[in-house]
Write a structure and sequence with these properties.
Elements: E1 4-7, E2 12-15, E3 25-29, E4 34-38, E5 43-46, E6 70-78, E7 81-85, E8 98-103, E9 107-114, E10 117-124, E11 131-140, E12 146-155, H1 161-166, H2 170-174, E13 175-181, E14 187-193, E15 201-206, E16 212-216, H3 217-221, E17 250-261, E18 266-276, H4 279-288, H5 292-310, E19 313-316, H6 320-340, E20 356-357, H7 358-366, H8 373-384, E21 396-397, E22 404-405, H9 425-437, E23 446-450, E24 458-463, H10 464-476, E25 503-504, H11 505-525, H12 528-548, E26 558-559, E27 565-566, E28 576-577, H13 582-586, H14 592-605, E29 607-608, E30 611-612, E31 615-616, E32 642-643, H15 647-656, H16 660-669, H17 679-682, E33 690-693, E34 704-707, H18 711-724, E35 727-730, E36 733-736, E37 746-753, E38 756-763, E39 772-777, E40 780-782, E41 786-787, E42 795-802
Parallel strand pairs: 38-42
Antiparallel strand pairs: 1-2, 2-8, 3-4, 4-5, 6-7, 6-12, 8-9, 9-10, 10-11, 11-18, 12-17, 13-14, 14-15, 15-18, 16-17, 19-37, 20-21, 21-22, 23-24, 25-26, 26-27, 28-31, 29-30, 32-33, 33-34, 35-36, 36-41, 37-38, 39-40, 39-42
C-alpha cells in the first residue's frame, strides 16, 4: 500500500502519497456540468460539450508536477516576505507531514499538513447544478499565533478546446475578465470569450471578503512569466494587482486574508466556479451557495444519491477485493462511463467530434440499467435516434446536437464506410432493459431514424421493436463469401481494418446472440412467427459458422476479402484472437467439444498472470492491409496487449461451461483492487478498471493505461454479478445461477428488483462450482432456479443451496 488504501466503510480510496506514477483522478458532476479532479487538486471542468464549452485549462500531457487547471496557495508572513506553499502539494512540491486525498463518490477531499498548517478541502458539484464547490478549512497546529493568507486560483481556457491549442493569435484576443464588487468586501470575477459575453459567462467567487485579485496570468506569475507556478512572484507582494484582463491568458486568483489564527483555531471559506448566461442570472445561486449550511445540504444530497444508487445491489463474498469493487467502485465507474462515454478523461482529451459512442454506450448502459432504469431508457432512445433507416448506426454522436459521426472510416474506396457491429449492440441493450424493468410498453415507443444526407436529419420513424428488427435485417443482408456478416470498416476491434468484403466472426457471434435474444423476446410476447423466422436464421448461421470457422484448436477471427483467415494457425502473426473463443459460447454457436478446446487453447496461448491477451503473437511492423493494429508494438493495446474489455467475456464463457475456478481466476487477475500492492508496475488507479495492460510480449509487462472510461467496467460488473454470482433478471423473474470457486462456502446478495428487495443467501455445502438443487422464497420451495417477481414493495428472503 505504497500510495494508498481502501476504506470501504466510508466508500473511499485514500491516497497517502501524492507522487503516484501517473495522475489519479475522480469525476465530479456530470456531462451537463462537471469534469474531473486529480489527486493534487487540479481540475478540468466543462459545461456540456467538453470540446465546445470547456471552462478550465488542463493539459494532460504536461508533467505531473505542473499546475493544471486549479490550485490553492497558502502563505505565512516571514520577515519582509512570505513563505508560500500549496496544501495540494502541486505545484510547490513542499515536503508534507500528512497528505491524504480521499477519492469519494462524486467528491474529492484533500487533507494535508505542511509547516503545522492543516488544510481540508472538499471539492464537489451539487446535484443538477452548474458550479464547482471548494469548501476549505484551515487550522493552525503550530502552537503559536499565525497570520495566514489563502489564494484560490483557476486558469481558464477558450471554450473551443481545439482552438485553444491551434490558434495562439485569435484566442487570446478574445479572452476577457471583469470584476463585480459586492457588499462587505465580496466580489465575483467573471470571464468570457468576447463573442459569448451575452451567453456564456464564467464566474469565480468566494463567501469570504477578497482584498485583491488577479485575472492575467502574465501579471500573476510576474517578470514576463519568468515567475513560475511553483513561486508566483505576485504572491510575494502584500496585494495582487486587481487587474481586469482585456486580452491574453485569463486566470482567476482570489486573495483571502484569513487574519490571525491562534493555535488550534480554524477558519473556513467556500469558493464557487461556474457558468451562467450572465452574472445577473448567476447571482441568486452564488448568494445561495455562499451559505455553509446550503453547501452541507448539497453535499448530504450527493451522498444520499450514492447511497441509494449503490443499495440496488450489495454483495458479501469470501473475497474482500471482489466485495470492494462490486459494492462500490465498479458500479460507480459504470455510472461515470454511462455519463461520459469516451468523451473526457485523463486519457480521452475531449477534443474534436467523438462524443458519445454508439457501441460504447450500448454496453455502458447495460451496467447501470439495474441502478438507474429511467436514465438508461432515455439514453437508449437517444442512441436509436442515430440509427439509420437501413438498420445500421452512426458510430458516435453529440448528445447536445444529436449530430452523428461515421467515426474514422475515412473515404478510402477499399474500406467500408460503416462499422459492422455498432447497430447490433442496441438489441442486447434493449433486452437487458426489458428484463430488468418489465417495461414492455417501451417496445411501442416511436423513435425517429437518422439520415445524415437530409437537412432535417431526423426523418422516418419506427417503434423500438422496429429499430431492433432493422438492426438484425441490416446484418442479415450484409454477408460475405462464407455467408457470414461483413466486417465493415471494423467491428468491436477498431484497429483491424481489412478490405471491403472481409467477414467478421465477432459480428457473427454478436448477431447470433441478438437472434437468441429476439427469439426469447418473441416467445415472451407470444409471437410464433417471429420465433420461427429468427430461429431459422440462427440455425443457418450456426451451421455455416461451424462449417467454415474451426481452425483445429480454436475458432478463426476474420476472413479477409479474398477468403484468407486471420486468427488461424496458418498466420505468422495474429494466430489466435480472444474474442472468437468466448463469443462462440455466448452466442451458443460453438459445438460442445469445440467450445472446450477453444477455451483451453485460449488459456494456453493467451492467458498471463496480468490478464488475457487480445491476440498472439503480435505484429512486428506496420502493415496497411491489416490497419491500425499494426501501429502498436507487440504487446501493446490491440496488438497482443491485454485489452481488458475482452476479459470479462471469457469470464462469462467459463461460467457458461460451468468452470467456476477459471471464471474466478480470470476475474481476479484483472481486479484493480487486487493490484494495490503492485502500483509501481501497474501505475493506474486501483479503484477503477483500465482499458489496457501491456502484455508479456512487451518489456513493460503489467503497465496499465486509459482508466475510467472503458467498457471493461460494465462487462466486469455484469460478469461478477450476473454470471459468477449468477443473479440476473429474466422476463419471468430473478435467475439464481451461480458459478463460483468450489472452495467458497457461499455468499450473500441484497438485490432490489422491480418493486421488491431480495435478500439472497447462497449456500455451497457440497463445494461445487455450479448447480442449484434447492431454492426457497420466504421459506417456500420453488421449482427451478427462477425467483418470481414480487410487486408488493416488501423484502423477501431467498435461500439457494448448491449441489
Amino acid at each position: 500500500m505504497k500510495y494508498g488504501y481502501f476504506d470501504d466503510k466510508k466508500k473511499e480510496y485514500i491516497i497517502t502519497n501524492p507522487k503516484t506514477p501517473v495522475k489519479w483522478i475522480n469525476y465530479i458532476g456530470t456531462l451537463n456540468f462537471g469534469g474531473f479532479v486529480d489527486h493534487t487538486g487540479g481540475a478540468l471542468i466543462c459545461k456540456g460539450d467538453p470540446s465546445l464549452n470547456r471552462i478550465v485549462k488542463y493539459i494532460q500531457q504536461m508533467p505531473s508536477s505542473d499546475f493544471k487547471g486549479e490550485t490553492l496557495y497558502l502563505r505565512l508572513k516571514q520577515g519582509e516576505g512570505f513563505k508560500l506553499f500549496s496544501p495540494f502539494f502541486v505545484p510547490t512540491l513542499d515536503q508534507y507531514d500528512l497528505y491524504q486525498c480521499h477519492v469519494g463518490l462524486g467528491y474529492t477531499r484533500i487533507i494535508s499538513e505542511f509547516y503545522g498548517i492543516r488544510t481540508e478541502c472538499t471539492i464537489f458539484i451539487p446535484i443538477n447544478d452548474i458550479r464547482e464547490i471548494r469548501e476549505v478549512k484551515i487550522t493552525n497546529k503550530t502552537g503559536e499565533e499565525l497570520e495566514i493568507d489563502a489564494i484560490s486560483v483557476v486558469e481558464y481556457t477558450h471554450f473551443d478546446a481545439v482552438k485553444q491549442f491551434n490558434n495562439a493569435d485569435w484566442v487570446p484576443q478574445t479572452m476577457q475578465s471583469r470584476c463585480i464588487r459586492e457588499e462587505d468586501g465580496l466580489l465575483t470575477l467573471i470571464q468570457y470569450a468576447f463573442m459569448r459575453r451575452e451567453t456564456n459567462v464564467n464566474f469565480f467567487t468566494s463567501n469570504h471578503p477578497i482584498s485583491s485579485f488577479e485575472s492575467d496570468r502574465k501579471r500573476f506569475l510576474g517578470d514576463n512569466e519568468y515567475g513560475t507556478w511553483s513561486n508566483p512572484l505576485s504572491l510575494q507582494k502584500e496585494e495582487l494587482g486587481s487587474y481586469e484582463t482585456h486580452r491574453g491568458d485569463n486566470i482567476g486568483a482570489l486573495l483571502h486574508h484569513l487574519g490571525s489564527l491562534k493555535s488550534g483555531e480554524t477558519k473556513s471559506f467556500i469558493t464557487q466556479l461556474g457558468q451562467e448566461q450572465s452574472f445577473e442570472k448567476a447571482r441568486g445561486g452564488i448568494e445561495k451557495f455562499r451559505d455553509p449550511d446550503t453547501v452541507k445540504k448539497a453535499y448530504d444530497e450527493l451522498n444520499g444519491f450514492w447511497e441509494e444508487f449503490l443499495s440496488r445491489m450489495q454483495v458479501e463474498t469470501p473475497d474482500p477485493a471482489m466485495n470492494s469493487m462490486l459494492n462500490i467502485h465498479n458500479p460507480r465507474q459504470c455510472f461515470i462511463a454511462k455519463n461520459w462515454s469516451r468523451y473526457l478523461s485523463y486519457y480521452q482529451l475531449g477534443m474534436g467530434t467523438r462524443g458519445i459512442g454508439f457501441r460504447d454506450s450500448c454496453q455502458d448502459v447495460m451496467g447501470v440499467i439495474s441502478h438507474i432504469p429511467e436514465e438508461s431508457k432515455e439514453l437508449l432512445k437517444k442512441m436509436m435516434m442515430v440509427q439509420r433507416v437501413n438498420g445500421s448506426a452512426m458510430h458516435s454522436f453529440n448528445p447536445l446536437t444529436m449530430e452523428g459521426s461515421k467515426g474514422e472510416t475515412g473515404d478510402s474506396p477499399d474500406r467500408p464506410q460503416y462499422y459492422g457491429d455498432d447497430h447490433l449492440w442496441i438489441v442486447l441493450a434493449v433486452t437487458t432493459y426489458l428484463k430488468e424493468t418489465g417495461d414492455m410498453e417501451f417496445l411501442e415507443e416511436i423513435i425517429p431514424y437518422y439520415d445524415e444526407k437530409k437537412e432535417s436529419r431526423l426523418q422516418e420513424s419506427g417503434t423500438v421493436l422496429d429499430h431492433m428488427k432493422k438492426a438484425l435485417d441490416f446484418t442479415r443482408n450484409d454477408k460475405g463469401k462464407h455467408s457470414l456478416p461483413h466486417l465493415g470498416f471494423a467491428d468491436w476491434n477498431d484497429s483491424v481494418n481489412l478490405r471491403t468484403g472481409a467477414e467478421s466472426l465477432f459480428n457473427t457471434h454478436l448477431y447470433g446472440k441478438d437472434l437468441l435474444e429476439m427469439i426469447e423476446l418473441c416467445d415472451y410476447l407470444g409471437d410464433t412467427t417471429g420465433i420461427k423466422f429468427y430461429q431459422a436464421e440462427y440455425d443457418e448461421m450456426k451451421e455455416m459458422f461451424n462449417r467454415t470457422s474451426w481452425d483445429g484448436e480454436w475458432y478463426v477471427r476474420y476472413f479477409d476479402s479474398d477468403g484468407t483467415p486471420l486468427g488461424s494457425h496458418k498466420n505468422k502473426n495474429g494466430k489466435i484472437y480472444i474474442n472468437a473463443q468466448p463469443w462462440s459460447l455466448i452466442s451458443g454457436m460453438a459445438l460442445p467439444e469445440r467450445a472446450e478446446k477453444a477455451l483451453d487453447s485460449l488459456n494456453r496461448l493467451l492467458n498471463t498472470s496480468k490478464g488475457i491477451k487480445i491476440s498472439w503473437p503480435g505484429f512486428d511492423g506496420y502493415d496497411r492491409n491489416k490497419g491500425g493494429v499494426t501501429t502498436y508494438p507487440p504487446g501493446a493495446k490491440e496488438n497482443g496487449g491485454i485489452f481488458l474489455h475482452t476479459n470479462p467475456w471469457v469470464v462469462i464463457a467459463e461460467t457458461i461451461r460451468g468452470n467456476g475456478e477459471r471464471a474466478y481466476e480470470y476475474y481476479s487477475q484483472i481486479n484493480p483492487a487486487a493490484k494495490n500492492d503492485i502500483i509501481d508496475e501497474y501505475e493506474c488507479e486501483p479503484y477503477v478498471y483500465a482499458q489496457n495492460i501491456l502484455s508479456n510480449e512487451h518489456p513493460q509487462f503489467g503497465l496499465g493505461r486509459n482508466s475510467w472510461l472503458t467498457g471493461t467496467a460494465s462487462w466486469m460488473y455484469q460478469a461478477g454479478t450476473r454470471f459468477i454470482l449468477g443473479i440476473r433478471p429474466d422476463y419471468n423473474g430473478l435467475v439464481i445461477d451461480p458459478c463460483i470457486p468450489k472452495k467458497w462456502d457461499g455468499f450473500k446478495v441484497t438485490r432490489k428488483y422491480k418493486n421488491a428487495v431480495y435478500n439472497i443467501e447462497v449456500k455451497n455445502p457440497k463445494h461445487v462450482s455450479r448447480g442449484v438443487y434447492r431454492l426457497k422464497a420466504d421459506g417456500k420451495e420453488i421449482n427451478g432456479n427462477i425467483v418470481p417477481v414480487f410487486e408488493d414493495g416488501k423484502t423477501h428472503s431467498i435461500e439457494a443451496v448448491m449441489g
